[in-house]
Each structure stands twice: as structure tokens, then as C-alpha cells.
Design brief:
- Strands 16-23-22-18-19-20-21-17 form an 8-stranded mixed beta sheet. Strands 1, 2, 3, 4, 7 and 8 form a 6-stranded mixed beta sheet that branches. The protein has a 5-stranded mixed beta sheet with strand order 11-10-9-14-15.
- It is built from 16 helices and 23 strands.
- With 487 residues, the chain is an alpha/beta fold.
- Helix 3 packs across helix 11, helix 13 packs parallel to helix 14 and helix 14 packs across helix 16.
- Helices cover 31% and strands 25% of the residues.
Length: 487
């Protein structure tokens, strides 16, 4: 009988907060005479919450108790208990990730995603999950083409470029529907994001105003705008998206809205797709442009009117406003390789920072390898000393026995200060060699030990590792970032 896991996805966005609960089904794809090759072969959404406006105490502070109340009520409606959830992702996205208490909110929700919880923020993972939730990655693979997916919410537009099913690059623009908020009754502006002012300044400095053909004034709190008066800033946002897709020459507009700390290299694409709240306003916008108390409806209409996007191919995914939360609940979790080694371990393991060696460092002899590890351990020390981490290696295909022994001695000696501080040696290898490496390490280190493979990570990433599944053959893992955006 197939083994299943229940997974939750909780997305706290600039505009909305949502929750989904999914069932992940595991399958051993190897023949009976081979090493097990367990994979997730089915992802089924069992429950979709209502879409709630994200509660805020102020422009800078999320209402943590308000968010918690929403999640508690949706759990009750779903019929699933917290103890039934085995894995999941709690994601704070867009401008919400810049709020002063974003970490506090994640902490308040950690009990709702089972023992194996993911707390993420940052545009890279968000853009990947949104594309997967919408099905853009599968479309790219099945149609042997390139596709650029835009996930446009209240505060940001997360970009992910896929080529023949493979992820090429991710990025983020500060383009969204709630960069400007309105009173629904009077229509007066109540909030203008600093992004709009920053973008205008960037373009003016470059010698190109937001609306070079006509006078332009940045919208201000208290104004009563019309669609016509907002057209220049909306047009510039759309031009930024067009440049990101390589459908408009240059990159001045794109650079004006590029999220700080991210990069994006424009590349002409034959197909685009959209998700997020603004995506719903591209094809089916409300008649009242102020329906949501922001400019999301107008932004959707402006994208729909773009000749550049009309000329490109368009994939309409299965999910729009729910794409990210569906991706978080169904696609955040992956599985390790099947040749793993663990001894006396207590699971789950959460928020483990990655120490990754370079290829040159890995190729050194045991002494040089150990020194490289010790040199980098200091990166993870604080006032209390060293902390638990994961040593990440690329590994080698079909390594010789002598090479495995050299690698094991170098790792054991290099991680000795970590063991002396009371922490566990944990090694993640990209290539399929964790079991043999673990067996070589076992006599060199006392106590708990974990080696897993099939995991590609980089320095700056974090790793969550769940309890073994599939009769102990694999470990659920999530690679994530905990780097919050700063305005």
C-alpha cells in the first residue's frame, strides 16, 4: 500500500492570507532487485481555505494574532487536526516579508504545520512554488519550450524562467496591486508604497521620467485619483514587466522596480503565464476598479491591454490567486536519495544552515579538507559559540574506496570542533554516495550521525529534515531561505 503524508501550505501575502492542505503519495519507482528509488508521485489538494485579507496593525506591522485566528478557524473548517500534518510550508511573501514582526508571525504559526515546519521568506522560493502551483514548469516540459511565469500579488511580482522543464533563473520586481491603497467609499488614497517614489527617482535620475510625454506627479495620500491619472505609473509597471520578459527593448523600467538584493537578466521568451491576485484581474476584472481598495484591478487591465504580452504566447495555469499556496502545500517537500545513513538521530531537524565547500576544497587530501571545514565553521559561530549546521558536498560519481576513506577522515577531523560543542555531524551530498560515506564515517565519530544524498544546496540555504518515511528508505527535506527582505 502506498504511503501518504499530509502537507499544509500557509501563505501570508501583501494582500491575502490563504491555506491549503494536500496529500502527498510516495512511490518506489525501482524494480524489486534494485536500491529503492522513492519519489512523490501524486500531489492532491484536499482543502482550500477562503481567501482572507492579510490583517495588519499598521503599514509596518502584521497582526500576528489576527493571522493565527484565521489559520485556527480554517483548520477547524478543514476537519484536519494539527497532529495529522506531517510536513508543510509557512510562507510570508511580498511586502509582508518586510514588516517589522514577520519572524514573530512565523513563530506564532509554527504549531500549525506539524513537527516538520518550513518558515520561508524571499522571492526565489516563492517564484518557484508559484510556477509549480500554476503548472508552468510542467507546461514548459511537455511543450519543449521556454516560459516566463509572473506571480503578481499585492507587493511584488515574482519571476521564474523555465526551459524545457528546467528552472533557469528567478527574480523579483516591486510591482503589485497594493503599492497604492484606497478608501473604498471615498476613493481617496490612504497609502503610497515607497517603491513608487523610489522607482520615479530612479527613472528621473536616468533622465527618463515616468511619463515623458506629459507632466507627472507621484500620487499622494489624500488624493482622489482616476484611472486616467494613475495611467502613467501603471503603464511604467507594465513596461517593467515587458522588459523583464525581453518583449520591450532596454531595462530602465525593469531596473527601477527591481527588488533590492535580487537580479534578473532579461531574455526573450515565446510564452508567458501569470498567477497571483492580479492575474485574476487580467482576464476577469471587476467592473468597479476600486473593488479591492487598491490598484490591482487597473494593473490587471493594463497587462491585458499590453500589445507586447498579447503578441507572446500565453499559458493559463490551473491556479491563479492560489498558485503560491498550492505550491507551498504540494511542492515545497522533496525526498532525499535512497542511499542514506543515519544513527541515533532525533527527527525532525529544522532551520539548519548550510556550509558548502567548493569543488577545489573537496578535492584536497584529508588534512586540507579538514582545514577548509574548520576555517568555514567560524562563519556560523555567534556569541554562544558554534551552532548546528549541515556540511554540503557535491561528491563524485563512482568514487574509489580510497577516495571515500580520505573524504571520511577529512570530514570527521574538520567537524571535530562541532562535535566537541555537542552538535551532530550532518552531511548532505548531491551525488549518490551518502550510505558508503556514512559507513566510512561511523567508526571515526561517536554518537549520532546523518548522511543523506540527492540534495543540492548552496551556502545561505537552510534545510529542514523530517523523520524517515517509506520504511526508513528516504527522508523528507525542504531547501529554503530565511532571509527576510528589507525595504
Amino acid at each position: 500500500m502506498a504511503e501518504t503524508l499530509l502537507s499544509v501550505g500557509i501563505d501570508i501575502g501583501t494582500s491575502t492570507t490563504q491555506l491549503v492542505i494536500s496529500r502527498l503519495t510516495l512511490e518506489n519507482r525501482a524494480n524489486p532487485f534494485s536500491v529503492p528509488r522513492v519519489a512523490i508521485n501524486r500531489r492532491e489538494v484536499l482543502y482550500r481555505s477562503a481567501i482572507h485579507f492579510t490583517p495588519l496593525l499598521s503599514d509596518a506591522v502584521i497582526d500576528a494574532q489576527g493571522v493565527r485566528t484565521i489559520v485556527e478557524e480554517e483548520y477547524r473548517k478543514s476537519g484536519f487536526a494539527k497532529g495529522e500534518i506531517a510536513t508543510g510550508a509557512v510562507i510570508i511573501t511580498g511586502e509582508t516579508a518586510r514588516k517589522e514582526n514577520a519572524r514573530e508571525v512565523l513563530s506564532a504559526l509554527s504549531a500549525f504545520a506539524g513537527d516538520f515546519v518550513v518558515a520561508t521568506a524571499g522571492p526565489d522560493l516563492e517564484s518557484i512554488l508559484a510556477a509549480r502551483g500554476a503548472g508552468a514548469d510542467e507546461y514548459s516540459k511537455e511543450h519543449h519550450t521556454d516560459i516566463l511565469h509572473f506571480d503578481i500579488g499585492g507587493g511584488t511580482a515574482n519571476l521564474s524562467l523555465w526551459s524545457h522543464g528546467e528552472l533557469v533563473q528567478t527574480g523579483c520586481l516591486d510591482v503589485g496591486g497594493r503599492l497604492l491603497k484606497l478608501e473604498r467609499d471615498s476613493g481617496k488614497i490612504t497609502y503610497v508604497s515607497p517603491v513608487i517614489t523610489r522607482a520615479a527617482g530612479h527613472l528621473e535620475h536616468a533622465g527618463r521620467g515616468l511619463a515623458p510625454a506629459a507632466p507627472y506627479r507621484i500620487p499622494a495620500v489624500g488624493d482622489s485619483p482616476t484611472p486616467e491619472s494613475l495611467a502613467p505609473v501603471l503603464r511604467t509597471m507594465v513596461e517593467a514587466l515587458e522588459q523583464a520578459a525581453g518583449l520591450r527593448p532596454g531595462r530602465d523600467r525593469m531596473d527601477a522596480f527591481l527588488t533590492q538584493g535580487t537580479r534578473w537578466e532579461p531574455r526573450a521568451v515565446p510564452v508567458v503565464s501569470f498567477s497571483g491576485g492580479v492575474a485574476d484581474c487580467i482576464d476577469n476584472p471587476p467592473v468597479d476598479w476600486r473593488a479591492y481598495g487598491d490598484i490591482g484591478v487597473l494593473l490587471g487591465r493594463a497587462i491585458a491591454a499590453s500589445q507586447a504580452f498579447q503578441q507572446a504566447g500565453r499559458f493559463r495555469g490551473a491556479e491563479t490567486i492560489r498558485a503560491t499556496v498550492v505550491g507551498a502545500g504540494s511542492h515545497a517537500t522533496d525526498l532525499s536519495g535512497s542511499t542514506i545513513f543515519y544513527r541515533d538521530m532525533t527527527f525532525p531537524l529544522k532551520n539548519l544552515p548550510i556550509l558548502k565547500l567548493t569543488a577545489q576544497e573537496e578535492r584536497g587530501d584529508a588534512a586540507a579538507l579538514a582545514q577548509s571545514i574548520r576555517d568555514k565553521l567560524g562563519w556560523f559561530a555567534d556569541e554562544g559559540g558554534l551552532s548546528q549546521l549541515v556540511l554540503a558536498l557535491r561528491g563524485e560519481d563512482n568514487p574509489a574506496y580510497a577516495r571515500i576513506q580520505t573524504l571520511a577522515r577529512g570530514v570527521a577531523d574538520g567537524l571535530a570542533p562541532l562535535r566537541q560543542a555537542g552538535f551532530v555531524p550532518i552531511v548532505a551530498v548531491e551525488c549518490d554516495q551518502a550510505k558508503v560515506l556514512g559507513q566510512a564515517l561511523a567508526p571515526l565519530v561517536d554518537g549520532p550521525l546523518l548522511c543523506l544524498d540527492g540534495v543540492g544546496v548552496d551556502s545561505g540555504d537552510y534545510l529542514d529534515i523530517g523523520a524517515p518515511v517509506a520504511n526508513g528508505a528516504v527522508l523528507p527535506v525542504v531547501i529554503k531561505t530565511l532571509a527576510f527582505q528589507k525595504s
